[in-house]
Structures are given as structure tokens and as C-alpha cells.
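Hey, resending since the last one bounced:
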Amino acid sequence: MKKAQKKLIALAVASLASAPLWAQSSSIQFYGAADAFVKYGQWMGDDVSGVDDGGLNGSRVGFRGEEALGSGLKAVFVLEQGFNIDNGQSCCMSGADAEYNGGSQTFTRQAYVGLKGSFGQVALGRQYAPGYFIDAYDALLSAVPSPQSWLSLLGNLTITPNSPARWNNAVAYDGVFQSVSLSAIYSAGNRETDSAGPNGVDNDDDDKYGVSLKYDNGPLKLGAIYHGIKYSGQNVTDGYAKGDDTQKEWLLGASYNFGMATLAGSYQQGRDVLGASGFDVDLWQVGVIVPVGAGNIHFSYGQADIDEVANVLSRDVKPKSFTIAYTHAFSKRTTGYLGYNKIDYDDLTWNDAYNLGQTDSSFNGHSGTSKVDDTDLFFVGMSHSF
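The C-alpha cells again:
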């Protein structure tokens, strides 16, 4: 852990220790999750085995607190750092975030301060976009083995339970009104100066915005989400420029608990993905959760339709994935899990995988024109929240 991270955590712990002095109007909570699993099988056709991080929940430590200001108004904050439990490294910043932001990358999951009241909450900082919260419509609960999670990353979508749905320099609103909730966010992106960045392109128009409307009443959950991600040539990966258009995404999701089982599913589209005109992605998934004693059986199947477009994808591909898993609640805070996940890349080439950001220029030792083989992954692990 870097020195800056140690100092920040030490300061936060010191603040937590002094909390009783002003506990009548304020509170601070230290929280987190530790999640690890053993994996075995093949990843994109290559043998893989070992310990990995965050099968059900991303491992993290965080501090959150609030202070009563009077008249029903509260000041709130969250500082949350993710880490890979398999090697202890910090995580959760990728793509343009990592490229344009220096420093120690502390609190890369969330970092914000805001005001909360009967109107809802308004906050400033690095925050989740509405498209991060789609677990209610996913039988795998947005866990790492979820087909929706894998395929949305493959298609470079930001309505995903992953790092592309964490946005810097953001103003966000969240409000809950009985069974209806509304969320909205505007992000100024990573750079707002009208000057050439590290790749020789202007970075004055990389704004992002999103909104969601959700209904949650008893066994029925419904949701609609929209994201817009602007591009002006600044989306560069390893020197490979994409496009200048605005990436437009939407998702409709639903779930219903019948008692003996919960049925969940979603359908989403991405248009002009990566700013490339005509680069379109469609993704649907459906699944079921069946209670069994103290545990649940989860099954989900998903398919994406990723369109051919010049300089990104050489042919239309329709990757498919399914996952079957079992989760067992040892307690309210500790859950064990095991399962199997398969991904069929539909003859995607390693050149195309590179253009989609799925591998580096070495193609993992494969020829760029060869086909990416299937992923077949067995996993067993445990998640503990505190």
C-alpha cells in the first residue's frame, strides 16, 4: 500500500476514534468487504488457475458518515478504496480514468461529499453512474461471473456493474419517493482543458451524463436507465483512436419474486459505442433464482450482438454466455459460493479482441488473425462483509 494511502487511512481511523466527542449530531462508519475465490479452467482458451478477487462483491474498505445540520438537512461523505485481495493491490480505475489521472489513486471506487434531506441527496466527486445498479434485474446479482457483466464489458458498454460506471468530477442526485426512485448524474470527465493531452488530441469534450427511473414494490422491480458518453477523439487506447460521436445507451430491466423462484432479465442497447459512428451493441439476458434451504441456485443466460464497423470490428459477432451457481448464507455477513461460467466468443479474432480492449498488443501470445477460444471457468469462494 502506498504511503499516501496509509496516511489517509490513518487520518480516517483517528477521526473515527474521536467520533464519540460529537456523536450526538454526527456518525462515522468503517465498512468493507473481503471476497476471494479459486478459479480453474480456461480463459479465452488459455489454461488458468489460482486465486482471484471479488466473485460476489468487490473487496474494499471505506468510510462513510453524516452530520445533522438542522431542519432535516445532513452533510454526508463516502471515501471507498477497492483492492485485489489476491495480491493486495489497489484497484477500480481503468481506461481513460487511469490514463489521465495521476497520484496514488486512493479511494478509486467512490469519493464524494454532499447534502441529504427530504428532497434526496446531492453529492460531488467520483461516483457511481445509474447504470452500475442493475443487480435487481440479474439472476447472478451483478457478480463477476454474470453473463451481463462479462458481455457488457466485451461490448464496451457503461451500463455495467464495473469500473466504466464509476465517473470522475461528477454531480449526482438520488431520491426515493415511496416505491419510485430517481437518479441523475453529470460528469465533467477526466480533462476539461482545451489543450492537447498525452496523445496529442483535445480533451475539452468528454462529458458523461445519465439518468434512471426505478419502481420497487414488493415482489416486482422495474427499471429504465440511460447513459450518454461524449467523445471528441480523446478516447485512445494504446494509440488506437476510436470516434467522435456520442455513445448512447439504454437499458430496461425487470424482476418478479414468485416465492418459489425469482425471474429476472434485461435488454440494453449501445449506439455509436466508443464514439464510432455505426458501432452498435445489443445485449439481453434472462435468469432465475431458486431458494434451496439457506442458499440459492442461480442460472443466467445472455447474448450480445456486436456490429461490424471499420477500424474496430472486422465482422458481426454474437458472443454468448451462461452461468450456473450456488450461494450459501453462512450468516448475514458471510456467503459461500461455487459455480461454472462459459463464454462463446463466436469466432472473434484476437485482432478484434484487441480493438475492443480485451487484450494487449501481444494478443496473449496468439496470432492476431486466429480465433478466440471459449472461456470455461469453474469457481468456488467466500465473501465476508463488515
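Residues 3-13+27-385 form a domain with the Porin fold (CATH 2.40.160.10).

Sorry for the duplicate.
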